[in-house]
Write a structure and sequence with these properties.
31% helix; TIM Barrel; twelve-stranded mixed beta sheet; alpha/beta; globular; binds iron/sulfur cluster; 12 helices; disordered N terminus; binds S-adenosylmethionine
Length: 358
């Protein structure tokens, strides 16, 4: 059964012919990409994700023996690839805290059908790992960085790490020859306009592409409130006033960022408008938590325990069936329904951002 979402943000790019062969959910969305969280721990305590007060008091991180092992991750990714997933992104928590990550990357690179392997990191350990990960086969990297103000940097991340280290790490990525480097900036009211423009000035004309992300109500512990959200349109206008930009088409079906290029040809910026212009209509993404739960939405209340199936030694065919039937039952569109009072499951506890990695 296919339902019509009737949403307002169609992707500018038509789907590819290969997409017709992919498995589809209830809204006819193909399964194209997978995010794999390799660890829930983090060396930062960002206020919008894992605020210090909440996490120190109420959350028990997974123990090492609860993590999916590398062979288990490899097997599950192989199954997702058989079902049409071409892009995988490693994330966390902070993925560079997982020992031996290059080994995992080398293994995943060999999986037939997988065309693109990316990673999202807070950048604090890139000075150490950027080249090693690139050499292992990582294609693209995204670094989260909200400000170039050293004091504010530490205020946002719970007084951990230093801005200099992250900037060094980004330079290492530029030198290491990544195919694409993105910089994620979460937009919150406390990041003033001057700091946004500082970021634009700093990265404009360089390889890293800035992407501004509206502050989302993920998880339960960030005390989200709509008043703290800065609409991306406000930042589009701000940047355009100082550095003229013009919209460009999406690179591919299901791309979440709205892209703009600088009119002087010095690169581009992107905006992820999960709050003001949700993009559930083209959401093609599945997620695996570090302990092996499969989620079909960032705002899910429940995941399928894939690890228990691995522990029961189920066959590849059974795994394929489990993933396929989960996707085919998928009806998630939380961001589209956010504003509606009668949204089902709305008040149930959600998975935390640091458990599935964005
Ligand atoms: N620790 C890594 C990092 O920070 O890049 C990877 C995991 S982190 C959960 C993935 C992305 O989610 C980061 O770019 C982070 O800025 C973003 N994020 C976390 N909480 C968010 C929120 N409440 N709203 C929007 N983006 C958020
Ligand atoms: Fe850690 Fe990333 Fe969450 Fe910040 S956003 S607390 S770096 S997992
Ligand atoms: Fe996808 Fe869920 Fe986000 Fe909608 S709310 S875009 S379905 S992850």
């Amino acid at each position: 059964m296919n339902m019509n979402l009737g949403l307002n943000t169609p992707s500018a790019v038509p789907k590819k012919e290969e997409d017709d062969l992919k498995i589809r959910d209830l809204y006819h969305r193909p399964l194209c990409d997978l995010r794999v969280s390799v660890i829930d721990q983090c060396n930062f305590r960002c206020s919008y994700c894992m605020p210090q007060d909440h996490c120190a008091e109420q959350y028990t991180f997974l123990k090492k023996d609860q993590w999916l092992t590398f062979p288990q991750i490899e097997r599950l990714v192989r199954m997702f690839a058989k079902l049409g997933v071409e892009k995988v992104r490693l994330t966390g928590g902070e993925p560079l805290l997982r020992p031996g990550l290059s080994t995992l990357i080398r293994k995943l690179k060999k999986i037939p059908g997988l065309k693109d392997l990316a990673l999202t990191t807070n950048g604090s350990l890139l000075y150490r790992d950027a080249r090693k990960l690139r050499k292992a086969g990582l294609n693209r990297i995204t670094v989260s960085l909200d400000t170039l103000d050293a004091e504010m940097f530490r205020q946002i991340n719970g007084h951990r790490g230093t801005l200099e280290r992250v900037l060094d790490g980004i330079r290492e990525c530029e030198d290491a020859g990544y195919e694409c480097i993105k910089i994620n900036v979460v937009l919150q009211k406390n990041i003033g306009h001057r700091r946004i423009l500082d970021l634009v000035r700093y990265f404009k004309g360089r390889k890293p592409i800035l992407r501004f992300i509206e502050y989302m109500d993920v998880g339960n512990c960030n005390h989200w409130n709509p008043a703290a959200v800065v609409p991306a349109s406000e930042i589009v206008d701000l940047i355009n006033e100082h550095f003229p930009i013009e919209p460009v088409e999406s690179n591919y079906y299901g791309e979440v960022a709205s892209r703009y290029q600088f009119a002087d040809g010095e690169g581009e910026v992107g905006f992820i408008t999960s709050i003001t212009q949700p993009f559930c209509r083209t959401c093609t993404r599945s997620r695996l938590s570090a302990d092996g739960k499969m989620y079909t939405c960032l705002f899910a209340n429940h995941g399928i325990d894939m690890r228990s199936f691995l522990d029961q030694d189920v066959s590849d065919d059974e795994l394929l069936n489990i993933i396929q039937s989960a996707w085919q039952k998928r009806d998630d569109r939380y961001s589209e329904l956010r504003a509606k009072p009668a949204t089902p499951r709305k008040n149930l506890p959600k998975i935390e951002m640091f458990q599935i990695g964005g």
